[in-house]
Amino acid sequence: MIPDRYKIAAEALAVFALLIAIGWLYHWHCAQQQDIGEARIQAQWDKQKLTDAETYRLRSEANQTIKDNAITQGAQREAVIKTLAASSAASAAGMRETIAAFSRSNATATVETLVKRADTAGSLLGDCTERYRSVAEKADRHANDAATLSAAWPK
């Protein structure tokens, strides 16, 4: 039979080994839980990065579409402006030619004809002045709108 002191030493050694095993298992379990937590945080981080990248892509596409539409509309307005400017230039050339013809024929025209021509010229000058004033007012309003938008646009 084994003496009691060896039996007690063996039991103490078994309890000590059991405590070491339990400590090691607890440490291993905590490490596993930490790894699980890290993986969960990494997955959330990766998902948020993908979401942010998609949001950025969609915003960039929307901004690009807005910019492209603005450029297209600007080109269309520019074409209209060029057409109107060409029409206006042709009209002005016609008016200059008419006025030149009137000037050439003033020497032989009657007083009544000259009065009618002067009245017509005064009326035309009044119409031109009003249109010029109207265009200048619209241009000033446009410049004000552009300055307001420029000041309000995020930098």
Number of helices: 2
Uncertain regions spanning at least 5 consecutive residues? none
Amino- and carboxy-terminal Cα gap: 92 Å
What portion of residues belong to β-strands? under 5%
Mean pLDDT: 86
General form: rod-shaped
Largest sheet: none
Q: What is the N-to-C succession of helices and strands? A: HH
Strand tally, please? Answer: 0
Instruction: Please compute the radius of gyration using only Cα atoms.
Output: 46 Å
Range of helix content: over 70%
Topology, please?
Blueprint lengths: L3 H102 L5 H42 L3
What report would you give on this structure?
The structure is a single chain. The protein is mainly alpha-helical. Among the domains are: 50-108; 110-155. It is built from 2 helices and no strands.
Q: What does this entry show, briefly?
A:
This protein has 155 residues and is mostly helical. Helices cover 93% and strands 0% of the residues.
Question: What labels would you give this structure?
Answer:
155 residues, single chain, 2 helices, mainly alpha
